[in-house]
Amino acid sequence: MVTATNAYNKRMDGRNFDELREIEAKVGVVKSADGSAMFKIGDTIAIAAVRGPRDLYPRFMQNPKGGILRCSYNMMSFSVDERIRPGPSRRSREITLVTENALMPAVDLSEFPNSVVDVFIEIVQADAGTRCAGICAASLALADAGIPMRDLVCAVSVGKVGGKILVDLNKYEEDYEDGSSDMPVAFLPRRNEISLLQLDGGMKKEEILNALELAKKSCVEILEVQRNALMGKYKNG
Q: Sheet containing 154-161: which strands, arranged edge to edge?
C-alpha cells in the first residue's frame, strides 16, 4: 500500500502526470529503404525501415489472398549504458511479435498476394518506452513506403508510479524503487481501436480505465506529430 512517504507527487523531469516527453519524427531517413522513419520521444530513439512488398520465399509461406507483414525489433548494443549482447533475445522476439500484432489492423496487404512487407526496427537510444517508439516509427515508415493503410498507429506507455497514474514513463519511473506498473498501449485513432494492450505490474480496474483514457488522449498528440512528419516530406517534394 502506497503511503504519504513514498507517494510519487512530482515527476523528476518536471512534467505533469498527463504530459508526454518532447517528440520528434521524420520520414525518409534511410535512403536505401522503400520507406523509413525516425521517432524520438524523450531520450528514446527508434528508426524503422520498410522493404517490400516483394516475393515471399520459401513458397509454402506465401498467402495467395494477400501479403504478409513481418517485423524485426532490435536494441543496438550501445543503446543503453550497459552493453547488450548482440543477436535476438527472448525480449526482442516477444516485442517483435507484439509489434506485428499492433500494426496488422492498420495495413491492407490484400493487393499483394504471395508477398511480404518487412519492417526492421532498430532502437539506437533507449530511455524506456522502446516498443512504443518502435511501433510509432514503423507506422510512419509503412506510410512512407506507400503501403495501403487504414490508419496510422500511435503507441505510448502509461502506468502507475507511487500510486499516481501517468503517461510516457521514463527509465527512472519504470525502475521506481517503491514500485511501478507499466502498460504499453497502441491505438488507431481514426478507427478508435486498441491494437496493443499489455500490463507489467498490478493495477485496479478503475486505474486501468483511467490510464487508457490518458493513453488515447496522448495518442492524439502523437498522431499530430506523425502527420506533420509525413506532410513535411511531401510538401517539400
A: 164-167, 154-161, 180-188, 193-197
